[in-house]
């Protein structure tokens, strides 16, 4: 797991993305899958905290250079094996509590990843959360829109996905995008303490996971239709333009 470090303290797995800007490509997804496999192989109380090693970035979105010229970036992995949406589906329904310690910018897919967590704590002093695809001349895929719609208040959803608003920590807290803010120095410790408090919820992994599936999966109880996790794992059903 060269792009991801996984450590455990008490009942809390701390997953640190350590690939500079933590842009999303096949190699990063593969390393994250390996980390989640280790988490899910554990038993008893558990929770996961994710963060970035780089002070400036939690995750700066898709690896666009790799997407446009994959042959020039062989270390980033095979584009045909980029099961990004399916990974997000797994993250949002992971049968343990998940806390995002958003230590810097979370743009595009990084914002998406943060929203796949149960709880978010963001630096108050630096960094933005933003769905900036429209600024890049891209259309947000329908499954990703479903995730944003499930996780954000209606007006925040529209400002985020259509107007590409950049939310700093305090405004993100006011908008309900994140649950807490913290200083740079306090962020990780605050996230680990929250994770430790939530970890007993995962003693019954089956129960915890089924309830997440009821919220986000097929025939989602949120709106009597399919939820964000279903959309993410069935991306081919939805047009992207």
Summed up, what is this model?
Helices cover 38% and strands 17% of the residues. The protein contains ten helices and ten strands. Strands 1-2-3-5-7-10 form a six-stranded mixed beta sheet, with helices on both faces. A four-stranded mixed beta sheet has the order 4-6-8-9.
Give structural notes.
The chain is an alpha/beta fold and 241 residues long. The chain has a domain at 4-132 and 166-204: Alpha-Beta Complex (2-enoyl-CoA Hydratase, Chain A, domain 1), CATH 3.90.226.10. The protein is 38% helix and 17% strand. The chain has helices spanning 26-41, 64-68, 84-92, 109-115, 142-151, 154-161, 169-175, 187-198, 205-216, 228-233; strands at 4-9, 12-17, 47-52, 57-59, 98-102, 105-107, 119-123, 128-130, 167-168, 180-182. Strand 1 and strand 2 form a beta hairpin. The protein is globular.
């Amino acid at each position: 797991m060269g792009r991801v470090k996984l450590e455990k303290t008490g009942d809390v797995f701390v997953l640190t993305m350590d690939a500079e800007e933590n842009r999303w490509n096949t190699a990063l997804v593969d390393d994250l899958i390996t980390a989640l496999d280790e988490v899910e192989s554990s038993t008893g109380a558990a929770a996961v905290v994710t963060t970035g090693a780089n002070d400036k970035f939690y995750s700066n979105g898709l690896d666009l250079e790799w997407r446009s010229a994959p042959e020039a970036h062989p270390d980033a992995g095979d584009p045909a094996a980029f099961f990004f949406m399916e990974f997000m589906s797994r993250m949002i329904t992971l049968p343990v509590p998940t806390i995002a310690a958003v230590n810097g910018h979370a743009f595009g897919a990084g914002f998406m990843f943060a929203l796949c967590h149960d709880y978010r704590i963001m630096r108050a002093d630096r960094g933005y959360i933003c769905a900036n695809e429209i600024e890049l001349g891209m259309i947000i895929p329908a499954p990703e829109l479903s995730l944003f719609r499930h996780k954000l208040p209606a007006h925040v959803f529209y400002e985020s996905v259509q107007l590409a608003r950049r939310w700093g920590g305090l405004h993100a807290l006011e908008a309900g995008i994140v649950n807490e803010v913290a200083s740079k120095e306090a962020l990780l410790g605050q996230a680990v303490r929250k994770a430790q408090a939530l970890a007993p919820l995962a003693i019954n992994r089956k129960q915890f996971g089924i309830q997440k599936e009821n919220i986000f999966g097929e025939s989602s109880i949120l709106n009597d239709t399919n939820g964000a996790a279903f959309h993410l794992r069935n991306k081919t059903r939805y047009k992207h333009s």
